[in-house]
Amino acid sequence: MKPMSKKINKDLILRGNMIHAILSLAIPVVINSLLQNMYNLTDTYWLGKVGTAQLAAINLVTPLQSIIINFGSGITVAGSVLVAQYIGANQKEEARSMANQIFACAMLLAIVCSSICFLITPGIVTWLGADPETYGHSVMYLRVVIWDMPFLFIVNLFSAIHQAQGDAVRPMFLNLGGITLNMFLDPLFIVEFQLGAGGAAAATLFSKMVPAMAALFLLTRPGQEICIHRRYMHFEKEKLKLILKIGLPSAIGGSTMQLGFLLMSRNVYAYGTQAMAAYGIGNKVNSLITLPSNGIGSAVATIVGQNMGARQQDRAEQGYRISRRICVVFLFIGGMILSRKPVSTAIVSIFSDDAEVIGMAADFLSIMAFWCFTNGVYNSSMGLFQGVGHTEITMAVDASRLWVFRFLTLWICEAVLHLGVRSIWYSVVVSNGTSAVILYLLYRMGIWKKTKIKIKTEGNQRGEMRAEQKA
Length: 471
Fold this sequence. Notes:
The protein has 471 residues and is mainly alpha-helical. The protein has one domain (4-455). The chain contains 17 helices and no strands. It has helices at 4-15, 18-50, 52-88, 92-127, 132-145, 149-164, 169-192, 196-219, 237-269, 273-289, 291-309, 313-338, 341-348, 355-370, 374-387, 391-416, 422-444. 58% of the residues are buried.
């Protein structure tokens, strides 16, 4: 029997109060994202107590890890969108088959990418310009933590499948167990066993392994509306093409953006280990500020996906507009508070005792928080375009945000305005704001109204779900 909560969520998304629908999806996603961020924040906190070099080491290589993770996440993004549209079209068998295709692709990709990253880690860390002490910590951390990818992808797939059904609560509790374990293992491995960066990596690996095994058990349990089963595991050409069509642009855009972050790390490291540590702290705290915006953006993708699957274009647009307003207002108020120098200084002081690091991190955080309301437009609009399958647009915006706007702003601030390390800070806010404006203009052009996703119609007859929906 289908759980009542799933039916309520689907009815709420397709027919209920829109604000209630947004919040019922977004709040658990925000909490879930917070828990995911706590892995890095916990590592940052304990390594900050050990020394600046170890803290700089994980900040230096985290973008490399993120490149690979974001590429794989493109597949789970495709999975969430495709499953949501099948559910909206009331095609449960197709949704179940698609979930299994996503699972097989994600596991294969995770194993291949982890192996490649393990082999190239020393060369990449050398290229980033790490000094001998930072080099050792960086290589140790990345070569251990990269093996969490298969477990991370299982948890992400679990989240994508349940969120596509309107259930964001179960993934939240799953991640709560993982971060609780990590908060216990971090001080044990880093401080008690004196394993430093390697201990932080091991703690993260074990902490993701446990919820992944729980997620796999729940995904393979029979009697569910959407489950993982070997009967559906064989590759289907049409579904693989659809996954690539929707997921590949998102994967390329996300990984290209993270490659830009890697190059940014190299630019930051040129200012020294203190600057690298400050950059990492500022980014991690800023990720907490924008969590509500990210969560609502994720909710938009689900709401838009299901309503476009049900051919309710006006309701899909209503969900996007309300979500955008909520994001902008919340981030504007929160940003004004966190941008005050006493507040930002108090927050970053939690993660470091180094006065120079605290000063730079507080400055970075103040600037980012002041302009973070632009993330509200960015995240909600990204959710809109992902929900209709226009991931080529999100890919182009993600790539240009780093490779065009951020590096161009960085060059102007360094070479023309001579702003020193502040050039890094300003390049972040200018590129984010510019990308938000571009996404809003693309929305106004109405490109999103023509969904790219083709699925079979009821009764397995080949059909066009991308019936060119007019305004």
